[in-house]
Amino acid sequence: MIGYLTPNHLLVAAFRSLPQKRTRAADRLHRRIFQMAPKLSDYFRDGEILAAKGDLDRPISGLALDSRRVMPGNLFFALPGRRTDGASFIDEAIQRGAVGIVAGKIPTGTAARVTYLHVADARQTLARVAHRYFNFPDRAVELVGVTGTNGKTTVTSLLQHLIATPAQRVGLLGTVSYDLGARVVPSYRTTPESLDLFGLIAQMRDAGCRQAVLEVSSHGIDQHRVLGLQLGVAVFTNLTRDHLDYHRTLDAYFAVKSRLFSGATGAAPKAAAINLDDAYGRRLAAAVAPHLKVVTFGEAPDALIRAENLRLNFKNTQLRLVWPEGAMEIESPLLGRYNASNLLAAFAACYALGRDLQVVAARLRSFAGVAGRMERIEEGQPYNVLVDYAHTDDALRNALAMLRPITPGRLLVVYGCGGNRDRTKRPLMTGAVQEFADFAWATADNPRSEALPQIFADMQTGLKHADNLAFVEDRRRAISLALDTARAGDCLLIAGKGHETYQEFADTVVPFDDRQVVRELIAVKKIKPA
């Protein structure tokens, strides 16, 4: 990706300067550059290439999986996709300067100056080759991978804060951003493609990071983006209904998540932190290999890292943290029972890394929270406004169940359902809202290419009573109406988009940040404090 991985510009320039016809020798500088260039054959092992056409000792300038990003001298991987096949872009890649093609089959029409490699699985091959190309960066950076339906972003952010020191930065790859040690860039995908993943970890290594945390999505596991990645600790938060449009069933979804702990992704983690309060977590803890070090967490009395005397307040969460060697009182700025679970997950991972929990817990006092995760918007208004990423029925129910008992006034909600995603969760989200909220506004989330009336129709099938829920197509207007309705002591939850700064429509993406919209509207309305 442009801006994420830096190509070898000197080598790319050398390839760009090659004459089209190889009738005269390259100049002395280019000859020296090519002598130092990596060879295509350096990155493949016996048995990985099923058939080849062309020179395997050809120099390459880098790897590419997007034909639009190909530079002269690149080795292009034509990956299969759900909507398009990378093989359709082979000609474009060659026109842009690719000297090698890796694909599920060798095309019938081939170019004379290009090497073609037939492999059994182009995605798996990309992961293995990228791992080697970036010189196994996960061997120099101790990695903690966090997987689960909910909580990945909060747990990774917490972990980064808890284990970092002024002298040692900790890298992070997640939904909100990529912290590479020397720079922070916006995230474009929760778990990047393997080429970007290993390239980004290599940047962390080169910037001096010795630890890093990353969110590991089920898509990332299933599509071999983390194939071969060596984790120091793998963390399992929970499993609820999400991505069933992709995985079809919860059991299939769980089977994919489990692969991160079994070694099916190519390298088993050295330790695992698993949530015993989650039914699938207990199932996972019982199924992992006996030699794997397992640190369980939760409120369950048999959890190794557990919370006792949990107090859920409106402005903080208090609990007694208990572990085999000790116990201490904890106060966290994160709200709700599920955030207590996220906190335990982070402490369990620290414990698995061998950290002193007394030292780690002291750093919690300076944790500012996570962007778009129960983020409080304070502009002097006499009621509370929280922006949260909850976009599944389970996440929404957890958020509202947490806010209901600690809200002195009414609980108001703005929510929506994304287009081109699991339709079965839409009525369940409406049901969750109506179970807890005093009034709600259903609106657009990221409609994508799906008609908003169809999304609303699915949401309406979950209606139990229509007098406390309004459907408003424009998200800004829905937020405005909610702010007009709110009174002192009320709590307004704006759910679904969290940290996102855009809205996706069929043919465009427009800027839209719930947090900024709230601030702008409060300023315009000149809402006075109580």
Please state the average pLDDT score: 91
Distance from N terminus to C terminus (CA atoms, Å) equals 49 Å
Strand percentage:
15-25%
List the domain count as a whole number: 3
Described by the principal axes of the CA atoms, the overall outline is globular
According to DSSP, the number of beta strands is 24
Biggest sheet strand order reads 9-8-7-10-6-11-12-13-14-15-16
| Top-tier CATH class of the largest domain | Alpha Beta
Number of alpha- plus pi-helical segments: 17
**Which percent bin holds the helix content?**
25-40%
Could you say which structural class the secondary elements and strand pairing correspond to?
A: alpha/beta
- Specify Rg, calculated over alpha carbons: 25 Å
Describe this structure in words.
- With 530 residues, the chain is an alpha/beta fold.
- It folds into three domains: 125 residues, MurE/MurF, N-terminal domain (Udp-n-acetylmuramoylalanyl-d-glutamate--2,6- Diaminopimelate Ligase, Chain: A, domain 1); 230 residues, 3-Layer(aba) Sandwich (UDP-N-acetylmuramoyl-L-alanine:D-glutamate ligase), CATH 3.40.1190.10; 151 residues, Alpha-Beta Complex (Protein-Tyrosine Phosphatase, Chain A).
- It is built from 17 helices and 24 strands.
- The chain has an eleven-stranded mixed beta sheet with strand order 9-8-7-10-6-11-12-13-14-15-16, sandwiched between helices. It has a six-stranded mixed beta sheet with strand order 17-18-22-19-20-21, sandwiched between helices. Strands 1-5-4-3-2 form a five-stranded mixed beta sheet.
- Helix 15 links the parallel strand 20 and strand 21.
